[in-house]
């Protein structure tokens, strides 16, 4: 939780009497504390008022060491305390557990266990040369545990928006939907629950969470492993159907374009548009640069842009550039939606190009 200085402290920071950078240090430690608490099961165990001794026994933790972790969480507002009794705060209940609106704890673990180790190895090169050399996904290789942590983090972040995004897409009952790069399965499964026939295409190591999520929800999602920039995957997705009316009613590109340079992104948009049936729509969900709606949005966009450079060699999207790519593909944006829960994120609904474009 961001540290909120008191009035006197804010004045001291504004007057440059104390080093503001100390808050960044505290923020890093807070992130690690949340990730550790999730790993140990602390946040889930605090489903009511619990004594320190009972928690330590249940979680098989040293009592004094657990007290220090809990007190750190108290200090940053995630846990409440009275004597030796602890409980999770409303903030934690709502945003860091499965009992609330969204559980972002796995996203914190993804950052601590995957992003930051990768960052330390690749950040300097990315800034010096404009590319990290290998993307985060290439770096993960065949490490199944790291892929699971990564997809759990992505699914965690998606939990903030899956319902409002699905609502914004309208009635999908009976629609053929293609989800490109949506390996965690949050959106694919939700749309399948709403009656869509969904195909999800992503790298093979990324698909297991979607398979599990679909099974848990009791819905069918067709999973296709491959590189969505490669011709053979698109032939597989097309199924060899030469019918002019074949195609998808809705193609999702959710948090995909930011990982690709200009030519790749333009090619991907062109192929996604070509995969649409007449009257179909393309849906783009991503972080767009420029003019956030608040100071939090501005900070978030700038830091995410840097993160995408370091992890993927990409960046947040420029609206004019995206519009030009879409125009080249014969498509155009018909609706844009923003989300208060995710400053800087936009959903764009795009009309299919006319059939003679491809």
UniProtKB/TrEMBL annotation:
<dbReference type="GO" id="GO:0032259">
    <property type="term" value="P:methylation"/>
</dbReference>
<feature type="domain" description="O-methyltransferase C-terminal">
    <location>
        <begin position="131"/>
        <end position="327"/>
    </location>
</feature>
<keyword id="KW-0808">Transferase</keyword>
<dbReference type="InterPro" id="IPR016461">
    <property type="entry name" value="COMT-like"/>
</dbReference>
<dbReference type="InterPro" id="IPR036388">
    <property type="entry name" value="WH-like_DNA-bd_sf"/>
</dbReference>
<dbReference type="InterPro" id="IPR029063">
    <property type="entry name" value="SAM-dependent_MTases_sf"/>
</dbReference>
<keyword id="KW-0949">S-adenosyl-L-methionine</keyword>
<dbReference type="Pfam" id="PF00891">
    <property type="entry name" value="Methyltransf_2"/>
</dbReference>
<dbReference type="InterPro" id="IPR036390">
    <property type="entry name" value="WH_DNA-bd_sf"/>
</dbReference>
<dbReference type="GO" id="GO:0008168">
    <property type="term" value="F:methyltransferase activity"/>
</dbReference>
<keyword id="KW-0489">Methyltransferase</keyword>
<protein>
    <submittedName>
        <fullName>Methyltransferase</fullName>
    </submittedName>
</protein>
<dbReference type="InterPro" id="IPR001077">
    <property type="entry name" value="COMT_C"/>
</dbReference>
């Amino acid at each position: 939780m961001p540290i909120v200085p008191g009035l006197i402290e804010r004045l001291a920071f504004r007057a440059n009497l104390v080093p503001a950078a100390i808050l960044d240090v505290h923020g890093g430690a807070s992130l690690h504390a949340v990730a550790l608490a999730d790993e140990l099961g602390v946040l889930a165990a605090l489903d009511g008022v619990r004594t320190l001794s009972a928690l330590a026994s249940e979680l098989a933790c040293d009592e004094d060491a657990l007290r220090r972790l809990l007190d750190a969480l108290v200090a940053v507002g995630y846990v409440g305390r009275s004597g030796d009794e602890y409980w999770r705060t409303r903030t934690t209940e709502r945003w860091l557990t499965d009992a609330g609106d969204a559980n972002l704890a796995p996203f914190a673990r993804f950052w601590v266990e995957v992003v930051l180790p990768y960052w330390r190895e690749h950040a300097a090169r990315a800034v010096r040369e404009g590319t990290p050399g290998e993307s985060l996904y290439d770096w993960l290789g065949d490490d199944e545990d790291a892929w699971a942590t990564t997809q759990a983090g992505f699914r965690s972040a998606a939990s903030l928006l899956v319902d409002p995004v699905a609502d914004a897409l309208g009635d999908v009952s009976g629609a053929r939907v293609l989800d490109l790069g949506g390996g965690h399965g949050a959106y694919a499964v939700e749309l399948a629950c709403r009656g869509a026939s969904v195909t999800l295409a992503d790298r093979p190591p990324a698909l297991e969470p979607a398979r599990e999520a679909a099974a848990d929800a009791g819905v069918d999602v067709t999973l296709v492993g491959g590189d969505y920039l490669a011709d053979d995957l698109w032939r597989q997705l097309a199924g060899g159907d030469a019918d002019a009316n074949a195609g998808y009613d809705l193609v999702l590109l959710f948090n995909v374009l930011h990982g690709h340079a200009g030519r790749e992104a333009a090619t991907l948009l062109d192929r996604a548009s070509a995969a649409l049936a007449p009257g179909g729509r393309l849906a783009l969900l991503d972080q767009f640069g420029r003019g956030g709606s608040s100071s939090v949005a501005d900070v978030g966009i700038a830091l995410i842009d840097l993160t995408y450079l370091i992890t993927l060699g990409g960046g947040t999207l420029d609206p004019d550039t995206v519009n030009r790519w879409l125009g080249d593909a014969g498509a155009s944006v018909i609706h844009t939606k923003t989300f208060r829960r995710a400053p800087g994120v936009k959903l764009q609904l795009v009309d299919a190009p006319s059939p003679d474009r491809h």
